[in-house]
Amino acid sequence: MKVELENLTKRWGDVFGADSIDLEITDGELVAFLGPSGCGKTTTLLMVAGIYKPTEGVIRFDERVVNHVAPKDRNVGMVFQSYALYPHMTVFRNISYPLKLKKVPQEEMQRRTQQVADMMGIGHLMDRKPAQLSGGQQQRVALGRALVKEPDLLLFDEPLSNLDARLRLSMRGEIKRLQLELGITSIYVTHDQVEAMTMADRIAVMREGKLLAYGSPEELYDRPRTLFIGGFVGNPPMNFVDVEVVQENGAYHARRGGFDVVVPPERGGQAAGHGTVIFGIRPEDVAIADDGVPGEIYVVEPLGRDDLIDVRMDEEARVHVLADPALGLRIGDNVKLRFNTDEAQFFDPETEQSLLWA
Amino acid sequence: MAETVVGAEAGVARAQTSRWAQIKATVGAWSFMSPAIFLVLVFFFIPAILLFVLSMTDLASSNFSDPWTYIGLENYRRLFSDRFFPKILRNTFKYVFLTLGFFNVGLALVLALLTSHINRRASFLFRLLWLLPRITPSVVYIVMWRRFVQTPPYGIINWFLSMFGVERQPYWLTEMPWLFVVLVNGFVGASFGMIIFTSAIEAIPKDLFTAAKVDGASSWQIIRDITLPLLRWPLLFVTTYQTLSLLVSFEYILLLTQGGPGLYTTEVWALTAYKRALKTYFGSHAWGYGAAWGFILVIIGVVMSVVYLRVFRFDELVQEPKIDVL
Ligand SMILES: Nc1ncnc2c1ncn2[C@@H]1O[C@H](COP(=O)(O)OP(=O)(O)O)[C@@H](O)[C@H]1O
Ligand SMILES: [Mg+2]
After folding, report:
1. Which of A8, A37, A43, A78, when mutated, tests ligand 1's pocket best, judged by the most ligand atoms within 8 Å of its CB?
2. CB-based burial of residue B194 (10 Å sphere; 0-12 exposed, 13-18 middle, 19+ buried)?
3. Which of B208, B214, B221, B224 best probes binding to A when mutated, by most A CB atoms within 10 angstroms?
4. Among A53, A66, A72, A138, which would you mutate to test the B interface (most chain B Cβ atoms within 10 Å of its Cβ)?
5. Cross-strand bridge partners of residue A12
6. Which of the listed residues A11, A14, A15, A206 should we mutate to test ligand 1's pocket, taking the one with most ligand atoms within 8 A of CB?
7. Domain count within chain B
8. Which of A80, A101, A222, B155 would bridge B216 by S-S if both were Cys, CB 3.0 to 4.6 A apart?
9. A15-61, pLDDT tens digit by residue?
10. How much is the pLDDT for B8?
C-alpha cells in the first residue's frame, strides 16, 4: 500500500508535534523516521495510525484520504518501544487479540496465531504471560501481534531501544528480512542512525517537528544537503573545519593556517569564491600518513576494530580519524594526515546549506 | 579418603549456614509483619474476643450492680428467635449490596471511567466536588437530605415538583425509605471507589490503550478487555473494604429513618446491635445481648471477606517477591 502525507501538522496550543510534513512512501518500502528525541516521530506515527487527529494536512492510503477513518479500519499493525503487551493475557491471547476483535472464526484464529508465533520462534511459549518472558521474546510477541492481522502498513516506534546491543543487532536483521519477505509497507521510527541506515529504503530526517531531508541512505550519506544532515547521518560523525577555497595554478585548495589540501575541481569549484566555508570530511576519509597536514593527537578512543583518534591541527581545528590500532598511536604523538577529498563536502556557514547539492 | 572427609565437613558447614540463613529469613519476615500483626491483634482480635466473652453474659443496666453472670449461648438463642431477626438480616444484605452495586463500586467505576476520558483539569474539579459530601459532617449532610424530602412548604423536591404542577407532594422519606437510604449512603460512598479506580486507571500505561485501538478495539471493548481486567486488584479491594464498612455503618440510617418508618423497615444489623446495647427507650442498656448481635456481624464480615478472596482468586494476585531474600 502507498502512503502519502501532505502538509501534515499536529499542534497542541502553540507546541508543534509535527510541522507540515510532506512525504510519500511507495508500496512495500521501509521508511525510517530518524531524529533526536522529541522531534515529532511518534506524533507523526500516531497520526498515521489514527490515534491522533491531524491539526492540518492530509493522510492518504493509496488514493484514499484516511483522516477520519478510525484506527480499527486502517488495518495497520504497530510495534511499541515498551512492547505494550497486555499483561493479563497469555502470549496466545495477546497475538490473537486483533483476530478476536475481527471476529475471525475460532479455528482460523488458532491456526493463524500459531503460524505467526512459529514464524517468530515463540510457538512454544503460547501459555506464558508477558511478565514470564525475556525482553527479546516480548518483542517477538509484539511483532507477532502486529503481523497476525496481515496489515497493509506496519508501524514501528523505536522497537529495539529496550534490547541489549547484541539482540538489537539480530532483531534488526530479522525485522528487515521479515519486512522484505512479506513486502509490507513500513514506517520505522528510530533515533539511532545506524538502525535507519541499515534497515531503511529511504530515511526521513526530522528535527523540531519538521522534515529536513528525505532520501535513500546512500543519498543522505554521500550527498548531504545541509550541515545538520552531514553531521547527523554517519557514525562517527563528519568532521567540520572552517576553510577558504582558492584556485591556484588550476588546482583548488582548501586552506586555513597550516592546513592546506587539494580538492577536486568539481567540488572545489562550487566552494571557491564564497569566503569562509565549512569543509566536511568523514573520519573514514582521513588517514594517518607519512606526509600531509601536521597535527597532534589529543584523544585516542579504541573502538576494537579501529581506534578513533582526535587530532588537533590548530587551536580551533580538530578532526576525528579512524586509524589502525596496530599503529600504536598515543596521546601527544605528532602525526600527518591525508584527506580523501573526493568525498569532501562544503557548506555555507550562514545558511548551513550544502554548496554542492543545492 | 582424605578428600571424602573434607567433603563431609564442608557439607556439615553448608547445612549449618543454610539453617542459619533460614532462621534469619524467618525472623526478618516476622519482624516486617510485626507492626501489622500488632495492630490486628490489638484492634481486631482482642476486641472480637472481648465481644464474644461479653455476649455470653447477661450484663445490662438493669442488673449492673450485680456480679456478671455467665449465661452461655442464651443471648444467641434469644437473637435467633427474635421475630424480626430474618427481616433485619434481609435488610442488611439489601442495604449492603444495593449500595455497593449501584454506588460504591458501580457508580464509582462509571465515574472513574468517565472522568479518565475527559480533560484532566475538568475531571480533577469534578472529583473534588464529588468529595464534598464526604467531608461534610454527617448530621449536616442528613439534615440537608431531610430538607430535600420534606412535605410542603419545606421540601425542596416538592418545591420543584410544584413548579411542574405535580399535585402529589408526599413526605418522600416514608414513601420510598429504601431509595433514600441507599442514595444517601451511596452518594458519599461512591467517592472512595472513584478515587481508587481513577488512580488505578491512570496508572495503566498509555501504550496499552493505543495498542488496543490499533488492534481494532472499540471504546467499550477496551474497557472490557483491557481496563477492567487490569483493575482486578482495586476492584477486590474496594468491594471488600466497602462491604465491611457498609456492614458496620448505621449512622446515616439512624439519623435519616432510625430504622423506620414503621417496624424495622430499614433497620440493619449494626443499627440493631447499637440500639440493643446502647440505646433503648427506657434507658435499659442490654450490653450482653447487644454484644451477641455485634459478634454475629463480625462473623458475617469474616465470611464475606473469605468469599471475596475466593471469588477474585486473590492467590493469583499475590506475586512472588521481586527481591530475593539473601
Ligand atoms: N499529547 C501531547 N500534548 C502536548 N505535547 C505533546 C504531546 N505529545 C507530544 N508532544 C510534544 O510534541 C513533540 C514531539 O513529541 P514526540 O512525537 O513524542 O517525539 P519523538 O517521538 O520524536 O521523541 C515534543 O515536543 C512533545 O513534547
Ligand atoms: Mg517517540
Report:
1. A43
2. buried
3. B214
4. A72
5. A15
6. A15
7. 1
8. A101
9. 999 999 999 999 999 999 999 889 999 999 999 999 999 999 999 99
10. 54
What pLDDT is attached to residue B1? 42
Q: What is the 3-state secondary structure (H, E, C) of A60-77?
A: EECCEECCCCCHHHCCEE
**Whether the CB of A326 sits within 6 Å of ligand 1:** no
B9-39 burial by CB neighbour count: b if 16+ within 10 A, else e? eeeeeeeeeeeeeeeeeeeeeeeeeeeeeee
Domain that holds residue B133: 43-316
Q: Is residue B280 part of a domain?
A: yes
In a domain, B8, yes or no: no
| pLDDT given for residue B148 in this prediction | 80
A-chain residues near B207 (CB < 8 A): 80, 82, 84
3 state SS of A7:
strand
What are the pLDDT digits (tens) for B196-212? 999 899 999 999 999 99
Q: What is the pLDDT of residue A57?
A: 94
Structure pTM?
0.80
Does the residue B15 lie in any domain? no
Domain CATH number, residue B77: 1.10.3720.10
Read off the DSSP letter of residue A13. T
For chain A, list the domains and their CATH numbers: 3-232 (3.40.50.300), 239-347 (2.40.50.140)
CA dist A170 and A158 (Å) reads: 15
Query: φ, ψ for residue A182 (rounded to 5)?
Result: -85, -20
* Nearest-by-CA chain B residue for A144: B215
Three cell numbers written together for A28: 512495500
Confidence grade of residue A100 (pLDDT, cut at 50, 70, 90): very high
